[in-house]
Design goal:
The chain is α/β, with parallel strands linked by helices and 219 residues long. The protein has a single domain, classed as Alanine racemase (TIM Barrel). Helix content is 40%, strand content 17%. The chain is built from nine helices and eight strands. α4 (75-78) links the parallel β3 and β4 (84-88). α1 crosses α2 (29-38).
Length: 219
């Protein structure tokens, strides 16, 4: 099965309004072009250098989403063109995104990455700290950032009950925070190749799928 066939199979499983981020990190531009030619427009990368290099040679209407942990000193590499930073996991990073977006007179969409998984190694806000940060009014002084929603990565496990617990927790956080940000706060980004059908049951509006589209990483 080629990339186009895999994409069409996945699209057929997604309810109306659910966006697909094709996780293209570590895959060559030729395979991304295949997905683009099939109709995919949103691609997810985890390394700024790799994203910038690919953006330079691929179609300009691609919407690039930064899905990996982003160091503050690397924001400037993607600020001119990135569509969404889906891994906004600290106050320092968010402040830097505002600073770099202002330089280019852009508004950059972000998702607040929240830690709900059992693994301590996973990044993301502690929900108590995130509430305090929002309460501080920090976002009111950031006109170049638009908070679109929340993102999390579920616990890496085969135990479906744990995955469901994580998705239920992040859904509750999404519902809690939505009144604070208004209509623009419309994105619940949960679900990857192995667990996205479960994520859809919990109201996911954005799934991040790589292996099921591109196969194993090539480098």
């Amino acid at each position: 099965m080629n990339i186009a066939e895999r994409l069409h199979r996945i699209w057929a499983t997604l309810p109306e309004g659910v966006q697909l981020v094709a996780v293209s990190k570590f895959h060559p531009v030729e395979r991304i072009q295949e997905a683009y030619d099939a109709g995919q427009r949103i691609f997810g990368e985890s390394r700024p250098q790799e994203m910038a290099a690919k953006a330079a040679v691929l179609p300009k209407d691609i919407e690039w989403s930064m899905i990996g942990h982003l160091q503050t000193n690397k924001v400037k590499m993607i600020a001119p063109f990135v569509s969404m930073i889906a891994s906004a996991d600290s106050d320092r990073l968010i402040a830097e995104v505002e600073k770099q977006a202002a330089k280019y007179d852009r508004v950059i969409d972000i998702l607040l990455e929240v830690h709900v998984a059992e693994e301590e190694t996973k990044s993301g806000w502690d929900i108590t700290e995130l509430r305090s940060y929002i309460d501080s009014g920090a976002f009111e002084a950031m006109p170049h950032i638009r908070v679109r929603g929340v993102m999390t990565i579920a616990t890496n496990t085969n135990d479906e009950a744990i995955i469901r617990r994580d998705f239920d927790k992040i859904r509750s956080i999404f519902n809690e925070l939505k009144p604070r940000f208004g209509e623009a706060f419309d994105t619940l980004s949960i679900g990857m190749s192995d667990d996205y059908p479960i994520a859809l049951e919990y109201g996911s509006t954005m799934v991040r799928i790589g292996t099921a589209i591109f196969g194993a990483r090539e480098y």
